[in-house]
Amino acid sequence: MQLKPMSSDTCVYMRQDPENPDGLPKLIVILYVDDILALAPEQETIDQLWTEIEKHYKFRRLGPLKEFVGLQFDYDRTGRTLKIHQERYTQELLDRFNMQNCYPKATPVPTNYIKDPDSPSLDKKNTTLYQQMVG
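Given the sequence above, the corresponding structure tokens read:
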């Protein structure tokens, strides 16, 4: 398949068109643990990748992309739009901390906020809880 890992992320592989090395990649493959995501301008390129992988590994094709590494994907081919979101994760977080009826804010702290140096710091238990809440 002639895939080469990106220097910026070794879980992302690309295959460039040899006739157009400065153009868009012909194929991008993203690996994360036991998940694989393939992106290409043509479905035939992705089908060839799956055929090649099936020669060496047993795997299941899950169909069109709906979720990958916690991100959800909604796309409209006719409108040529793609929405990437974490609505399920956000709802699970709100449910976990009993915050279903909270009021949303664009930013939880005023942008010009300066922490009072004399204010107490969170203890380890509350620090962990805070980190879980903000993700």
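The beta strands are 4-5, 12-15, 27-32, 35-39, 67-68, 71-76, 81-85. Try to locate this feature in the token string yourself.
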